[in-house]
Design brief:
- This protein is of the alpha/beta class.
- Helix content is 16%, strand content 36%.
- It has a four-stranded mixed beta sheet with strand order 1-4-3-2, with helices on one face. It has a four-stranded mixed beta sheet with strand order 5-8-7-6, covered by helices on one side.
- A hairpin with a 2-residue loop joins strand 2 and strand 3.
- The longest helix has 12 residues.
- It is globular.
Amino acid sequence: MTVNSPPPPQVWPTLRARDARGLIRFLVDAFGFEEVMVSAEGDLVHHAQLRWPPGGGIMLGSARDDPADPWALQPGSFGAYAVTDDVDALYARAVAAGAEVVQDRRDTDYGGREVLVRDPEGNRWSFGSYRGEAAPS
């Protein structure tokens, strides 16, 4: 028997989208995110959670035309770096799905390989093999 439990506490980057359902589909098809849950009414996505298979994930929802919106993030203003072990495979998948290449694949001077792309909402995504430095002990 499998017991599902919530992930441990972590940071969840968030973004808003003009077409949240379309962006969710794109992030799944182009980048390999996995849809965990979507709370929506028609085209209005209240909350969605997408898992990044190597670890972590993002949360997103529909942009709202409401001056009282307490989380009024501008669609297309998000940027994130996500670790992947295979930058070239992710690049091929993303380009095939219509991602706009901002900077082609390159090897960095800090020992990683990365690519910069943009989703249909204009958000910038950097995918790379660099996992960051170990925390001091």
